[in-house]
């Protein structure tokens, strides 16, 4: 299990820009390959919210990953703020353009009451997946509390176990294939009466890129139909699209 900080967070130096976060995940990948001898077939990438951007960027460039998990993912940075239907050149984390390049099984988990990244983002990304694993739509789930739902851990374990079984059943260099359960029947689950996981998970202050998305959304203004190039930088900074 490898977990890393973005540039500018924790003890990491630098600034958490889009391209720096791509460099961050590349550095983590390089470390796993060169220092620990991990190959692509052993890797399951996990990205949450804005972290789905670096995750899909790397996954779109690797053809033999074991799997990908997207937790409350975004279609793109601009689409969090506005319901636009096209991709603009100044947009960031264009997951909508990269998800179709991912060749491994993808699990998507999203809360139906997400107040930061609308549930529609997860649903649209799932529709665009090449290898759709049964998604998990948590009824009433928000943006930062999905781990507290018992079904979250159960479904995640089921996904990981399915990848393990598939790999074990292949011979030599034969490319592994994952048996995908209930491909066209997404799972929707609500919270149970008891939360066993809640007692084990400490309250965490999420001082991350996610908070910037939420702040930007509160400052939302109607979209302008045209925008001159000399105003793009100011627009991106004002709307929180530059981190």
UniProtKB/TrEMBL annotation:
Composition bias, Basic residues: 234-243
Chain segments carrying region Disordered: 167-243
InterPro entries in UniProt: AB_hydrolase_fold, FSH-like_dom
Occurrences of domain Serine hydrolase (ranges): 76-143
Record-linked Pfam families: FSH1
Gene3D superfamilies: alpha/beta hydrolase
Biased composition (Basic and acidic residues): 174-186, 209-233
Name of protein: Protein ABHD17C-like
Native source organism of the sequence: Momordica charantia
Name of encoding gene: LOC111016899
